[in-house]
Amino acid sequence: MTPDLTALLDAWPYESGRLNVRLIQGEDGEPRIQLRLDLGILQMRTSGRPDGKSAIEGFESLLEHHEARLDEHIEANGSASGFVLAPEACQALRDEAVQYYHRYVCLMALEDFEGVVRDTTRNLRVLDLCAAHAETEGDRTTLERFRPYIMMMRARAMAAQALKDNEPKAAVFAIDDGLESLRRYFEESGQLDAFDESNEVQALRGMRSALTPKLPVSQESELRKRLKDALEQENYELAAILRDELKLIRD
Questions:
Q1: What does the alpha-carbon distance between residue 165 and residue 171 come to, in Å, rounded to a whole number?
Q2: pLDDT tens for residues 106-130?
Q3: Where do the domains of the chain lie?
Q4: Which residue among 1, 48, 55, 134 is buried most deeply as judged by most CB within 10 Å?
């Protein structure tokens, strides 16, 4: 087999301005995700560590390895006090998290929403681990600027999966829960003033607005809302009509 990738790249041209993602079957029969970049193709496994390698013997990823170390430390010492992640370990965890980032972005495009939830949840664990146990202040905070984006992607994926399952109310609940989590994050980090202007918050609010008309609303509750609006606008003629309609429903 020639090492020249020209034929492969020519068969799948790069398209600027869109996410070029596809799912293919590997020679071993297992699926692979491919992301077409301007200078090549990035290939990932659909589950496990994206590069298909074991980061360290006995563990799927470095994150699981360090979480196991933390569990052992707590069991031996009664608390997490004294458990530290060296700068080299934090850098390795960040490098590994980038692999999962590439995958969950691709999975979103492929509408594998459960996979997106899995990988975003996993990367939030990386942020939590480093924030709590990194040796240096820089390693404790450097990933925090990505937390709102990961939280937003997770909420979007949960909502999209709910819609896929024909559960629009669950979709709105997932978005509202994501918005509340973002509000708490901005508040706890002393940035509550930035909450409304956050791109992540605006993205979730936009998704929620698009979903709201799809919610099943009972005829009675809709009439009650219209009656309330009519009274607030002092449109008493319309209010009387709506009261009659409500009376008919109850009877």
A1: 10
A2: 999 999 999 999 999 999 999 999 9
A3: 219-250
A4: 134
